Amino acid sequence: MMGRILAIMAAVAVVSGGVSGVRAEDAKRIGVVNVSRVFNSYEKVKVVQDKMEKLFDADRKSIATAGDDLKKWEDKIRVDPRDPKANVEFFQEIQKFELTKLQLEMRFRKLSEEVEKRRKDEMKSVLNDIKAAIRTVGTAEKFDLVLRAPEFDEDFDPAKAANPAEKERNEPQSAAELVRKFRENPVLYFSQGVDVTQPVIDKLNGDFKKTAP
User: Fold this and answer.
1) For the segment 71-102, what is each residue's pLDDT rounded down to a tens digit?
2) In degrees rounded to 5, what are phi and psi of residue 199?
3) Contact 160, 153 (CB under 8 A)
4) pTM, whole model, 2 decimals?
5) Phi, psi (5° rounding) for residue 15?
6) Helical H segments across 21-87, by residue range
Protein backbone atom coordinates (compact mmCIF):
# COMPACT_ATOMS: atom_id res chain seq x y z
CA MET A 1 0.00 0.00 0.00
CA MET A 2 2.79 2.40 0.98
CA GLY A 3 4.59 1.64 -2.28
CA ARG A 4 1.49 2.54 -4.26
CA ILE A 5 1.12 5.84 -2.40
CA LEU A 6 4.75 6.75 -3.09
CA ALA A 7 4.29 5.90 -6.78
CA ILE A 8 1.22 8.15 -6.98
CA MET A 9 3.07 11.00 -5.23
CA ALA A 10 5.98 10.65 -7.64
CA ALA A 11 3.62 10.74 -10.63
CA VAL A 12 1.92 13.89 -9.30
CA ALA A 13 5.31 15.55 -8.80
CA VAL A 14 6.29 14.80 -12.39
CA VAL A 15 3.00 16.18 -13.77
CA SER A 16 3.19 19.29 -11.58
CA GLY A 17 6.74 19.94 -12.67
CA GLY A 18 5.79 19.58 -16.32
CA VAL A 19 2.87 22.00 -16.02
CA SER A 20 4.15 24.75 -13.75
CA GLY A 21 7.84 24.10 -13.15
CA VAL A 22 10.47 25.91 -15.17
CA ARG A 23 13.98 24.56 -15.22
CA ALA A 24 16.63 27.09 -14.30
CA GLU A 25 18.46 26.51 -17.56
CA ASP A 26 15.26 27.30 -19.52
CA ALA A 27 14.58 30.62 -17.75
CA LYS A 28 14.94 33.70 -19.94
CA ARG A 29 16.34 37.03 -18.75
CA ILE A 30 14.34 40.00 -19.97
CA GLY A 31 15.49 43.60 -19.68
CA VAL A 32 13.82 46.93 -20.43
CA VAL A 33 15.07 50.26 -21.73
CA ASN A 34 13.34 53.65 -21.90
CA VAL A 35 14.08 54.70 -25.47
CA SER A 36 12.82 58.27 -25.04
CA ARG A 37 15.10 58.89 -22.07
CA VAL A 38 18.01 57.36 -23.95
CA PHE A 39 17.33 59.58 -26.97
CA ASN A 40 16.99 62.75 -24.86
CA SER A 41 20.15 61.95 -22.89
CA TYR A 42 22.36 61.03 -25.86
CA GLU A 43 24.81 63.91 -26.28
CA LYS A 44 25.10 63.33 -30.02
CA VAL A 45 21.44 64.35 -30.47
CA LYS A 46 22.12 67.88 -29.20
CA VAL A 47 25.23 68.11 -31.38
CA VAL A 48 23.24 67.05 -34.44
CA GLN A 49 20.46 69.55 -33.67
CA ASP A 50 22.95 72.40 -33.26
CA LYS A 51 24.68 71.41 -36.49
CA MET A 52 21.37 71.43 -38.35
CA GLU A 53 20.52 74.88 -37.00
CA LYS A 54 23.86 76.32 -38.11
CA LEU A 55 23.81 74.52 -41.46
CA PHE A 56 20.53 76.04 -42.62
CA ASP A 57 20.45 79.19 -40.49
CA ALA A 58 21.62 81.52 -43.28
CA ASP A 59 19.01 80.17 -45.72
CA ARG A 60 16.24 80.49 -43.13
CA LYS A 61 17.17 84.09 -42.35
CA SER A 62 17.38 84.96 -46.03
CA ILE A 63 13.91 83.52 -46.69
CA ALA A 64 12.50 85.26 -43.62
CA THR A 65 13.89 88.62 -44.81
CA ALA A 66 12.48 88.04 -48.30
CA GLY A 67 9.13 87.17 -46.73
CA ASP A 68 9.09 90.42 -44.74
CA ASP A 69 9.88 92.41 -47.88
CA LEU A 70 7.14 90.56 -49.76
CA LYS A 71 4.62 91.37 -47.02
CA LYS A 72 5.47 95.08 -47.22
CA TRP A 73 5.10 94.93 -51.01
CA GLU A 74 1.71 93.22 -50.65
CA ASP A 75 0.51 95.87 -48.18
CA LYS A 76 1.59 98.56 -50.61
CA ILE A 77 -0.34 96.93 -53.47
CA ARG A 78 -3.48 96.57 -51.32
CA VAL A 79 -3.73 100.32 -50.66
CA ASP A 80 -2.76 101.36 -54.19
CA PRO A 81 -5.78 103.16 -55.71
CA ARG A 82 -4.87 102.29 -59.28
CA ASP A 83 -7.03 99.87 -61.21
CA PRO A 84 -4.90 97.03 -62.69
CA LYS A 85 -7.42 96.67 -65.53
CA ALA A 86 -6.88 100.24 -66.57
CA ASN A 87 -3.24 100.73 -65.58
CA VAL A 88 -0.74 98.53 -67.39
CA GLU A 89 2.17 99.38 -65.08
CA PHE A 90 0.16 98.46 -61.98
CA PHE A 91 -1.00 95.24 -63.63
CA GLN A 92 2.60 94.33 -64.44
CA GLU A 93 3.66 95.11 -60.87
CA ILE A 94 0.97 92.73 -59.53
CA GLN A 95 2.16 90.02 -61.92
CA LYS A 96 5.74 90.56 -60.78
CA PHE A 97 4.61 90.35 -57.15
CA GLU A 98 2.77 87.07 -57.73
CA LEU A 99 5.81 85.61 -59.53
CA THR A 100 8.13 86.66 -56.69
CA LYS A 101 5.73 85.16 -54.16
CA LEU A 102 5.63 81.87 -56.07
CA GLN A 103 9.43 81.76 -56.31
CA LEU A 104 9.75 82.37 -52.57
CA GLU A 105 7.26 79.59 -51.82
CA MET A 106 9.21 77.20 -54.04
CA ARG A 107 12.46 78.23 -52.35
CA PHE A 108 10.94 77.63 -48.92
CA ARG A 109 9.58 74.23 -49.98
CA LYS A 110 12.96 73.18 -51.38
CA LEU A 111 14.73 74.24 -48.17
CA SER A 112 12.20 72.30 -46.07
CA GLU A 113 12.81 69.19 -48.15
CA GLU A 114 16.60 69.55 -47.81
CA VAL A 115 16.33 70.05 -44.04
CA GLU A 116 14.07 67.02 -43.65
CA LYS A 117 16.32 64.81 -45.78
CA ARG A 118 19.40 65.82 -43.79
CA ARG A 119 17.59 65.41 -40.47
CA LYS A 120 16.38 61.96 -41.51
CA ASP A 121 19.92 60.85 -42.36
CA GLU A 122 21.28 62.22 -39.06
CA MET A 123 18.51 60.63 -36.99
CA LYS A 124 19.02 57.32 -38.75
CA SER A 125 22.62 57.40 -37.57
CA VAL A 126 21.54 58.26 -34.00
CA LEU A 127 18.97 55.44 -33.88
CA ASN A 128 21.52 52.96 -35.23
CA ASP A 129 23.86 54.01 -32.40
CA ILE A 130 21.09 53.46 -29.85
CA LYS A 131 20.19 50.02 -31.21
CA ALA A 132 23.86 48.99 -31.18
CA ALA A 133 24.30 50.20 -27.59
CA ILE A 134 21.19 48.32 -26.44
CA ARG A 135 22.48 45.19 -28.13
CA THR A 136 25.92 45.57 -26.53
CA VAL A 137 24.58 46.23 -23.02
CA GLY A 138 21.93 43.52 -23.35
CA THR A 139 24.56 40.99 -24.38
CA ALA A 140 26.92 42.02 -21.58
CA GLU A 141 24.11 41.71 -19.03
CA LYS A 142 23.17 38.31 -20.51
CA PHE A 143 19.62 39.32 -21.38
CA ASP A 144 17.79 37.13 -23.89
CA LEU A 145 15.33 39.91 -24.72
CA VAL A 146 15.24 43.68 -24.19
CA LEU A 147 11.83 45.37 -24.36
CA ARG A 148 10.92 49.03 -24.65
CA ALA A 149 10.10 50.30 -21.17
CA PRO A 150 7.18 52.66 -20.50
CA GLU A 151 7.70 56.11 -21.98
CA PHE A 152 5.80 57.69 -19.13
CA ASP A 153 8.32 57.72 -16.28
CA GLU A 154 6.02 59.22 -13.66
CA ASP A 155 4.28 55.84 -13.32
CA PHE A 156 7.55 54.11 -12.41
CA ASP A 157 9.92 56.77 -11.08
CA PRO A 158 9.31 57.49 -7.36
CA ALA A 159 11.22 60.77 -7.59
CA LYS A 160 8.98 62.08 -10.35
CA ALA A 161 5.86 60.78 -8.66
CA ALA A 162 6.82 62.69 -5.51
CA ASN A 163 7.50 65.93 -7.42
CA PRO A 164 4.18 67.88 -7.64
CA ALA A 165 5.33 70.08 -10.55
CA GLU A 166 6.59 67.10 -12.57
CA LYS A 167 3.49 65.09 -11.77
CA GLU A 168 1.18 67.94 -12.83
CA ARG A 169 3.11 68.45 -16.06
CA ASN A 170 2.68 64.78 -16.97
CA GLU A 171 -0.91 64.49 -15.79
CA PRO A 172 -3.27 63.34 -18.60
CA GLN A 173 -5.59 66.12 -19.72
CA SER A 174 -8.49 63.83 -20.58
CA ALA A 175 -9.81 60.32 -20.03
CA ALA A 176 -8.91 59.48 -23.62
CA GLU A 177 -5.28 60.53 -23.06
CA LEU A 178 -5.19 58.56 -19.81
CA VAL A 179 -6.33 55.41 -21.61
CA ARG A 180 -3.93 56.07 -24.50
CA LYS A 181 -0.96 56.35 -22.16
CA PHE A 182 -1.94 53.12 -20.45
CA ARG A 183 -2.40 51.24 -23.73
CA GLU A 184 0.85 52.55 -25.23
CA ASN A 185 2.94 51.26 -22.33
CA PRO A 186 4.44 48.01 -23.68
CA VAL A 187 5.51 46.95 -20.17
CA LEU A 188 3.18 47.51 -17.23
CA TYR A 189 5.59 46.36 -14.52
CA PHE A 190 9.30 45.70 -14.25
CA SER A 191 11.85 45.33 -11.51
CA GLN A 192 14.44 48.12 -11.40
CA GLY A 193 17.08 45.42 -11.61
CA VAL A 194 16.22 44.75 -15.25
CA ASP A 195 16.19 48.41 -16.36
CA VAL A 196 19.28 48.97 -18.54
CA THR A 197 18.40 52.53 -19.58
CA GLN A 198 21.24 54.21 -17.69
CA PRO A 199 23.91 51.70 -18.79
CA VAL A 200 22.82 52.28 -22.40
CA ILE A 201 23.06 56.06 -21.95
CA ASP A 202 26.50 55.71 -20.37
CA LYS A 203 27.64 53.46 -23.21
CA LEU A 204 26.42 55.87 -25.90
CA ASN A 205 27.90 59.01 -24.36
CA GLY A 206 31.15 57.25 -23.46
CA ASP A 207 31.63 56.08 -27.05
CA PHE A 208 30.56 59.46 -28.46
CA LYS A 209 33.11 61.37 -26.36
CA LYS A 210 35.85 59.14 -27.73
CA THR A 211 34.95 59.95 -31.35
CA ALA A 212 33.66 63.53 -31.05
CA PRO A 213 35.97 66.15 -32.52
Assistant:
1) 999 999 999 999 999 999 999 999 999 999 99
2) -60, -35
3) yes
4) 0.65
5) -65, -45
6) 35-41, 43-79
